[in-house]
Each structure stands twice: as structure tokens, then as C-alpha cells.
Design brief:
single chain; 401 residues; alpha/beta; TIM Barrel; Non-ribosomal Peptide Synthetase Peptidyl Carrier Protein, Chain A; 2 domains; 8-stranded parallel barrel; two-stranded antiparallel ribbon; 15 helices; globular
Length: 401
């Protein structure tokens, strides 16, 4: 494919593919990740079936959904299922959440004993249910607490690499990412990922890539950039502009797992082919549905596929009438019948490349516990979920960093 026929937005028409040895594998202790691309952990998204599908399209590091320490230690069935893997998933990467150092230490120790190859820690979740209890993106407001939690994980992980993911801060008045980078380096974290938005911004506006560059210039550990990777070219631009060591891909791959193939090709210096037509996208969606059914059971899988099919067919004119029928599907056969009726030759719409498939572009006022800002040097862990009911409620929180 020549540059003039490249399937890309106007922003990326002239971005060159990677040159020979321009980029290096992402080094996480003994792990070498090539291309330097990480699938962002997303609740309700990055379960084993989706991780496996993304891995088939391109190499990289594919992180699990966020797993709560309390749910894992209490043996919660859903937590254990989401933390589970299948033979052949290597490296196995799990994102953990918790604000109690004791819980985190025990959980990480258990995961390492199970053979997990990489631990990521979530300190970027902006969801009110989490921040209201002092968790997620609220934790970095208290650097001594952050240090205690991270120290427990790193100590328990041994030779297994531990990374953390943060946001810029709570809002423009409380910017915490530079302190988080300092804590991460001092406590032995292998790498830090930065979603270059504040918790108040959620997923609105444009990610501030200059913050990624500033963090990279201030620490000696690898920095992973996150925010607005919609096309493979965005990843190359981010690394060139910020000097970061790798990229984290989130919303851009929803309903587009082939983005990892395009990323792998661009990092290898190969001009990627265009995205699939509607018929091929439908076949990929059906393969995804079969995998979800094998993992969760047909009923739960079809409930999940209602959102997934909307993402796979986003922007296609031929799928406009599909969404009303999706709300009632209960079997794989129903889904297959709907998808096979679509116009297979309809090309992928260019306008859909940079359209968000999940999170709305709005801002919020971040909820914090009463008095949380009174003493930012306090390192007392927040309460967090304790009862079975609370733990199960937290497992349903859709908490992307």
C-alpha cells in the first residue's frame, strides 16, 4: 500500500512507519515486550477471550481486568474467574486493585505463586464509587500511602515486574503524576503508565502528551503513555514526541482487535493493510462470541455481545438497523443470523477510526471521602469493600484508568 492510499485520518497521512531499530522492546525486568504495546486493563472488556483475540492479531502485553485484592483473597467466584488464564497465555499479566498494603501483599504473593508474569496496579480509576472511598485515582493524593501500597506489592512480587498506572491527578488543582513517578522509582516499580488526563476529565478532550514527556524526563524507569491511541500511527507519534518507552491502548481497540496487527506491522516498518470490511468484521465478532460463550456460558456471553457488536459495527451504514435487535439476543444462533444478514462488502468507514466506542466525553467533579484532603501525608489505608455484598458490587465497577 502506498502512502497516497494509506487508510488513515488526515492527522496521520504522513506519519512514517518505524525505521530500522528506531524503537526498542519494552524491558520489564526479564520480560521483553515487542512491539512496545500494552492492552489497557478495562473492566468488562479485557477478560481472557478478548485478550486472546488481541494476542492473535499482534504481539504485545495484554493485561487482565482490574482484580480487587479483597475479592481475590475472599475467593469471590467472579474475581477468580477474571483473574484466571488458559494454557498458552504468556506472558500472563494481571492488574490488581487495593488500598490496603497487607491485602495487596498477600494477593501479589498468591498470584506470583500461580505463575503470573507481570503485575500492574491501578491508581488511576476515576469512578466515583472508588474515589469516594479513597481508592483509585485518589490514592496518589497521599504519596506516603501510595508508597506503602507499592512497597508491599514489590516486596511480595520478587523477580516478577510490578508496574503502576496513574492519571495526571484529580483535577487541575491537584496534579499528582510527578510525585507518583518519584514514589514508583523509589519503591522499585519496574515501569509507570500515565493516562494523560485528570480524573475530573474522565475521557473528554485531548490527552496531554506533554505530561508524558515531562514524566519521562523526570524518572529513570520506563514510562508508558496512554491516551488517544486510535490508530497505529498515534502510537508512533506519541513515542516520537514524548520519548516514552511504550504505549497503552484502551478505547481505540474496542471492536477493533485488528488494531494490534496494524501496530505490530507499523513498528516492524511495514505499511499496514487497511481494516476489514463489514463481513470480515462480523466474522471476527462471531469468533469473539464463541470464545466468550466457552468462557462464561452462552447467556452471559450474549449479554456482553450486545455492546461488542455495537462497537464492531460502529459507523457502518449497513449496521444502523442492527442495534435495536441486539437488545434481545440470547443465543449465538440469533447473533449469527443478524450478522450474516449485513452487507459483507461495505468498507470500513474512515469516520469511525477516531470515534469513541465506550466512554462519553464529559467531565466530572471527583468524589473524595469527607476530610480526605485535610492531611495528605496521612498513610492510613481507606476502608475499601469488606462484606461479600460490597466486594461483589466493586467487581461490577467499570474502572478503566
Amino acid at each position: 500500500m502506498t502512502e497516497t492510499t494509506r487508510f488513515a485520518s488526515e492527522l496521520n497521512r504522513d506519519v512514517p512507519v518505524a525505521g530500522p531499530q528506531e524503537f526498542s522492546p519494552l524491558a520489564l525486568k526479564s520480560l521483553r515486550v515487542w512491539p512496545p504495546v500494552v492492552l489497557a486493563p478495562m473492566a468488562g472488556i479485557t477478560n481472557y477471550p478478548f485478550r486472546h483475540m488481541c494476542r492473535e492479531f499482534g504481539a504485545g502485553l495484554f493485561v487482565s481486568e482490574m482484580i480487587t485484592a479483597r475479592g481475590f483473597l475472599h475467593g469471590n467466584r467472579v474475581t477468580r474467574l477474571l483473574a484466571s488464564s488458559q494454557p498458552g497465555e504468556s506472558p500472563r499479566s494481571v492488574q490488581v486493585y487495593g488500598a490496603d498494603p497487607v491485602d495487596i501483599g498477600e494477593m501479589v504473593r498468591a498470584l506470583v505463586a500461580e505463575g503470573v508474569d507481570h503485575i500492574d496496579m491501578n491508581f488511576g480509576c476515576p469512578v466515583a464509587k472508588v474515589t469516594r472511598q479513597g481508592g483509585g485515582s485518589a490514592v496518589p493524593l497521599k504519596p506516603r500511602l501510595l508508597a506503602r501500597i507499592v512497597r508491599a506489592a514489590v516486596s511480595s512480587a520478587g523477580e516478577v515486574p510490578v508496574t503502576i498506572k496513574v492519571r495526571k491527578g484529580i483535577d487541575d488543582g491537584f496534579v499528582t503524576y510527578m510525585d507518583s513517578g518519584r514514589v514508583a522509582q523509589e519503591e522499585g516499580v519496574t515501569a509507570i503508565g500515565l493516562h494523560a488526563r485528570s480524573a475530573a476529565e474522565l475521557y473528554s478532550g485531548h490527552a496531554d502528551w506533554s505530561a508524558i514527556r515531562k514524566l519521562k524526563e523526570s524518572v529513570d524507569i520506563p514510562v508508558l503513555g496512554n491516551g488517544d491511541i486510535w490508530e497505529c500511527w498515534d502510537a508512533l507519534r506519541m513515542m516520537r514526541e514524548t520519548g516514552c518507552d511504550g504505549v497503552i491502548v484502551g478505547r481505540g481497540c474496542l471492536g477493533r482487535p485488528w488494531l494490534f496487527r496494524e501496530l505490530a506491522e507499523a513498528f516492524e516498518g511495514v505499511e499496514p493493510a487497511g481494516p476489514p470490511k463489514l463481513g470480515e468484521a462480523a466474522q471476527i465478532a462471531l469468533r469473539h462470541a464463541r470464545s466468550l460463550s466457552e468462557f462464561f456460558g452462552e447467556g452471559p456471553a450474549m449479554q456482553q455481545m450486545r455492546k461488542w457488536v455495537g462497537w464492531y459495527t460502529k459507523g457502518f451504514h449497513g449496521a444502523a438497523n442492527l442495534r435495536a435487535s441486539l437488545s434481545s439476543i440470547t443465543t449465538y444462533e440469533e447473533l449469527e443470523r443478524l450478522l450474516r444478514a449485513l452487507p459483507a462488502d461495505e468498507p470500513f468507514p474512515l469516520r469511525a477510526l477516531r470515534v469513541s466506542r465506550a466512554k462519553r466525553g464529559r467531565r466530572q467533579q471527583v468524589k473524595l471521602p469527607e476530610g480526605y484532603l485535610d492531611d495528605l501525608m496521612d498513610d492510613t489505608p481507606p476502608r475499601g469493600p469488606r462484606s461479600v455484598e460490597e466486594i461483589e458490587a466493586w467487581e461490577r465497577v467499570h474502572c478503566g484508568g
